[in-house]
User: Which sequence fits this backbone?
């Protein structure tokens, strides 16, 4: 995936641009991501926070992740689109929900994480490595 990455919410009130290459991309199957999306997982792209420029108002809601630390989910207060995750353990990073990219097909996951929470009806790409719990880069463990 090459920079810049651009995207935004459904109603267009929030837009973003990232000028750096992603640190990583994955599919997260944790229960929080399932609840937040109503789906099987969240496809995510991790970028350096200082390379992300956001326009428009973003509201954040903090949830305790599998590491025991907070992940602050960012969403548009107008249309409710989930856009970002700000992990307290890694304040230098920002997680972008890949479905909000202007070109979501640019998301190229390199692994599935929290697969111990994956639903039995969720088909995962058999070619991607599977990580049972937290991803060390994001969890600090």
Assistant:
């Amino acid at each position: 995936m090459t920079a810049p990455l651009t995207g935004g919410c459904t109603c267009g009130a929030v837009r973003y641009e990232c000028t750096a290459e992603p640190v990583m991309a994955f599919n997260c199957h944790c229960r929080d991501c399932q609840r937040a999306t109503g789906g099987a997982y969240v496809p995510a792209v991790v970028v350096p926070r200082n390379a992300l420029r956001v326009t428009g108002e973003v509201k954040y809601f903090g949830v305790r992740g599998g590491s025991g630390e907070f992940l602050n989910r960012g969403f548009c207060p107008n249309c409710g689109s989930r856009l970002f995750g700000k992990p307290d353990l890694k304040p230098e990073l920002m997680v972008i929900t890949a479905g909000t990219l202007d070109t979501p097909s640019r998301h190229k996951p390199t692994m599935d994480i929290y697969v111990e929470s994956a639903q039995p009806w969720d088909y995962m790409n058999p070619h991607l490595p599977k990580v049972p719990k937290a991803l060390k880069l994001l969890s600090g463990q």
Q: What stands out?
A: The mean pLDDT is 91. The first strand starts at residue 5 and ends at 8. Residues 27 and 112 are 5 Å apart (CA to CA). The domain at 12-136 is CATH 3.90.1590.10 (glutathione-dependent formaldehyde- activating enzyme (gfa)).
